[in-house]
Amino acid sequence: MSEFAPELSDFRAEVAAWLREQLSGPFADISGQSNQVDNVERRREWEAALGAAGWSTIGWPKEYGGRGASISEQVVFAEEYARAKGPPRVGHLGVELLAPTLIAMGNDDQKARFLPDINQGKVIWCQGYSEPGAGSDLAAVSTRARLENGKYLINGQKIWTSMGGFADWCFVVARTEEGSVGPKGLSFLLVDMKQRGVTARPIKQITGEAEFAEVFFDDAVALETDRIGAEGEGWAVAMALLGYERGVSTLAQQMHFQIELDEIIAAAKNNGKAADPVIRQKIAQAHIGLKIMRYNALRMLEGTDNANLSGAAYSYKLYWSSWRRDLGELAMDVLGQDGELLDEEGRFEKLPNMFLFSRADTIYAGASEIQKNIISERGLGLPREPRGR
Question: 45, 224, 231, 245: which is the annotated catalytic residue?
Answer without folding.
Answer: 245
